[in-house]
Amino acid sequence: MYQEIILDHYRNPHHRGLREPYDVEVRHVNPTCGDEVTLRVKLDGTKILDVSYDSIGCSISQASASVLTDLVIGSEVDDAMAAHEAFLALMQAKGAEVGDEAVLGDAVAFSGVAKYPARVKCALLAWMAWKDATLQALARHGGEPAES
Amino acid sequence: MSFDVETVRKDFPILDRQVRDGRPLVYLDSANTSQKPRPVLDVLTEFYERHNANIHRATHALGEEATEAYEGARIKVAEFIHASAPEEIVFVKNSSEALNLVANVLGWGPRAVGPGDEVLITEMEHHSNIVPWQILCERTGARLRWFGVTDDGRLDLSNVDDLITERTRVLAVVHVSNVLGTINPVSLLAERAHRVGALVVVDASQSVPHMPVDVTTLGADFLAFTGHKMCGPTGVGVLWGRRELLEELPPFLGGGEMIETVTMERSTYAAVPHKYEAGTPPIAQVVGLGAAVDYLRSIGMDAIAEHEREITAYALTRLAEVEGLRVLGPTEAVDRGGAISFVVDGVHPHDVAQVLDAHGVAVRAGHHCGRPIHLRYGVAASTRASSYLYTTKQEIDALIDALHAVRRFFG
């Protein structure tokens, strides 16, 4: 489960820290363990200009936030939502799937996490926060929320 | 009878389990839930195979047997905590329900709290002894106050005169902390609270399973504990209350079995304890709890407490060897239970627990339903190892070895 990729992202998280400007800021918590993430999204139309975050949590939740930002910053909301869907499916696969690297990038390293139900919430924390913030940002701009 | 942990372990079939690729199970999560000895498992099976029926209403042989087994368990539990009568034992779902029951019936009726009144708790309570009181205060306009804790994990009693006043109507306090392990001076606090006429509610979830508890000397008016942490089944907990209070206070849940007579306009209620046991109770679980009480008494609560004190002292000494590890709560086995929460520098508790699990060591990671006490010590979460009568020093050694592996892995 502790793939080297995960540990790398944990030790050297990408895009960490809260940045200006942003459209929406959300705070999500994992009520069973107290892990927290505060996450900001900045959109330009349907393009994701920036995702910044500050978080407290385990290696899985930290690395997952780092991988998420690598994946979605600079991409179209629709593509990012598709990656979100794919990651969610991977996390719900109980370790039976390996994930599509073309869609998920480094996030495929989390396939092993799906074997440990208690840790799936850790992996999903930042992803759920990002989706929440992005949908709010789209609604604020009067854009259409992507299919989810 | 002398206590021998290896003999005790033979009573617990699950302790033979191997986990995670054939590693022997090292179960250090008993503060979360205890394992079940063979006699309890046998009684559960026998009840369902031979005596299963609903109680207090079935006019047949099985109904009589089931009722006798259920009420027999009430007598056993009453004796176990030295209650003055079996009627003072109310069977509920768990400690949380017991505490919610008390908080609920203080929201109306002859002892209702209201604006100007204060409910006093402590910073080291489990959420189940915080949230029901927050709800009560929100409903009634009473004010919630709390004792803080000291840096070394004890209740801070320096402002006791400011906190326990004529306005205090309820003092709700945990006997043994599920996070810090601290054993609180309940009798002393109860004496102070009674002087101002307050009711004393004690969360005994982590004390009744682990040490002799005598409600005639503790000073509590209500005591809550749960079956599954004391070798019994899940789904059954106990509220002990002083009989005159249970009689005086209004009912909690309405329904079958808790009534005397019902008309379309109003109802009168059954005598205690049945007034507080609406609907079909967890019958087999209550019978199983009775068997758990028999089992614990056969070993002896003094012997269990002494064994756990030894294990806790050993664990605290060995944990001190692990570099970068900090124990939350008392670091000596004095007035201390067997739950030991700790943080490892630079490694999140989830990661600690995951690596321990890979070594077969079962612990709990998170805030253990005590978020405020974690915030008090400046951490979001911790890892908790907790022992019981079947815990061995070898298991503590296995924990320490695995913790060194954690340090190597994340170092």
SSE diagram, text form:
The complex is a heterodimer of chains A (148) and B (411).
Chain A: H1 4-11, E1 24-30, E2 35-44, E3 47-56, H2 59-72, H3 77-91, H4 101-104, H5 117-140
Helix pairs in contact in A: 1-2, 2-5, 3-5
Chain B: H1 5-9, E1 18-19, E2 23-24, E3 26-27, H2 38-51, H3 61-80, E4 89-92, H4 95-105, E5 118-122, H5 131-140, E6 143-147, H6 160-163, E7 168-174, H7 186-195, E8 199-203, H8 215-218, E9 222-226, E10 237-241, H9 243-248, E11 259-262, E12 267-269, H10 283-299, H11 301-319, E13 325-328, E14 339-344, H12 349-358, E15 361-362, E16 364-366, H13 371-376, E17 382-386, H14 393-410
Parallel strand pairs in B: 3-15, 5-6, 5-7, 7-8, 8-9
Antiparallel strand pairs in B: 1-2, 4-10, 9-10, 11-12, 13-14, 14-17, 16-17
Helix pairs in contact in B: 2-10, 3-10, 4-5, 11-14, 12-14
Architecture overview:
The complex is a heterodimer of chains A (148) and B (411). Chain A is of the alpha+beta class. Chain A is built from five helices and three strands, in the order αβββαααα. Chain A has helices at 4-11, 59-72, 77-91, 101-104, 117-140; strands at residues 24-30, 35-44, 47-56. In chain A, strands 1-2-3 form a three-stranded antiparallel β-sheet, covered by helices on one side. Chain B has 411 residues and is α/β, with parallel strands linked by helices. Chain B folds into two domains: 5-30 and 301-409, Aspartate Aminotransferase, domain 1 (Alpha-Beta Complex), CATH 3.90.1150; 41-297, Aspartate Aminotransferase, domain 2, CATH 3.40.640. Helices cover 37% and strands 17% of the residues of chain B. Chain B has helices spanning 5-9, 38-51, 61-80, 95-105, 131-140, 160-163, 186-195, 215-218, 243-248, 283-299, 301-319, 349-358, 371-376, 393-410, and strands at 18-19, 23-24, 26-27, 89-92, 118-122, 143-147, 168-174, 199-203, 222-226, 237-241, 259-262, 267-269, 325-328, 339-344, 361-362, 364-366, 382-386. Chain B has a seven-stranded mixed β-sheet with strand order 4-10-9-8-7-5-6, with helices on both faces. In chain B, a hairpin with a 4-residue loop joins strand 11 and strand 12. In chain B, helix 3 (61-80) crosses helix 10 (283-299), helix 4 runs parallel beside helix 5 (131-140) and helix 12 packs across helix 14 (393-410). Chain B starts with a helix and ends with a helix.
